[in-house]
Amino acid sequence: MECWGWPPSYDPDYRPPATQEHWFPIRETMDPEQRDEAILARIQQLMAYAWERAPFYRRKWTEAGLEPGDITSLELFEQVPVVKKEELREDQAANEPYGSYLCIDPVEVTHIKGTSGTTGRPTAFGISQRDWVAVANAHARVMWGMGIRPEDVVLIGSPLTQYWGSWGAYSGAERLGAAVFPFGAGFAGQSLRTLQWMRQMSATVFYGTPSYALRLAEVAVENGIDPRGLGLRKMFFSGEPGASVPAIRQRIIDAFDVEVYDSGSMGEVAPWMHLGASDNAPGVFAWQDLVYTEVCDPQTMRRVPYGSEGTPVYTTLERTSQPMIRLLSNDLTSWEAPDKARGRTYPFLPKGIYGRLDDMFQIRGENVHPNAIDEIVMSAEGYGGEHRIIITRETAMDELVVQCEFDAQKTSVAEDVWIKKVGDDLRNVLGVGAKVVTVPPATFERTEFKARRVIDDRNLFESLDRGQT
């Protein structure tokens, strides 16, 4: 296997010929069973490394009655207890600033990234220069698989803050030799300037979130700019579901006349692009030689068979600073067996990451994933560009209301007929009725980052029932 050593070390001058489909042909097309043997050996090395250097892992595994030498197969590896995000936050609070799972001297940390902290204490990612180089090489491999080449100009259209997505895309594009334009996102008026610079610099590739791409298309039309004339040839995304959701990806393709590629997992697991597409189609590969991915039953944390749905559990195979060993994602996906006809012999996630276990909600006994609603309303002719999902409990029963912007100029269907059709489609797919309410176009605020469309009012009514204010 090319450059398969521990700790990882890459030739900084290596780059495939432009016509070569794979960055590392052997690693990407080898027999999956042979790759699994190499992955097992790496996991054994990684666990021994963490056992020696990280009190967090040594304590966790000791409590589970395990030592690194006990793991002699990938099946036995499933017995290793998963790590949850809250454990990482708690450990960092007790062992500031990087936690007791930091496996290097803190002076070796050269890059600091982290979570936003919007759902609790921020988690700091301490990254060594060795890991920074490994992450750049990994992302370059995946981006190469997307067909991005040194002659491209890659515009980064997501916040250049602690958010790993922006910096991962930046470092990967830089490593493969492309020109990188880190424009960012998130400031008032920046969308129009993004479009102007995109055109001025002849950008050929865009990275951001699907929500922001759709916002850019709206701003372009509002300002007399044809998004299809910008010269983009590829757009790749992470940060939220969408690029593998047929209705959303088709809206992006229609707006920009581009190829669309999905990618992304978790910031804690950089290289997050280890889930990445190599075709202009829904779905992503699990690049197992970068981050070993297990799709697991959420109850047992054991792998589910191919063809089944579960939550990804990740193990970084090239990180030496803060290795993640069986980190629970709480995301939702399904996977399929490796198939050499796809061009790479990795497991395949045909719908990408399409939801989160903690985003799922129940309406009258039915499990509902917001992404299923998104796909229905966004594919409806006459959809005005945004919507909101409201869960309420004004009476004894939960109610689901979907507020949709409706644009009569985009359809010949009458508004009342449109409402009924969308409502029927929602009932057929969700198994529960939803009240569809139309509002004028541009009613809802647009986003330059991740879309937040679900509003759950049930807690409000529960507190009122208890006499709380």
Automatic annotation (TrEMBL):
Residues 365-458 form the AMP-dependent ligase C-terminal domain. SUPFAM superfamilies: Acetyl-CoA synthetase-like. It comes from the Bacteria. Residues 103-310 form the AMP-dependent synthetase/ligase domain. GO terms for molecular function: ligase activity. Keywords: Ligase. It holds the Pfam family AMP-binding_C_2. This is Phenylacetate--CoA ligase.
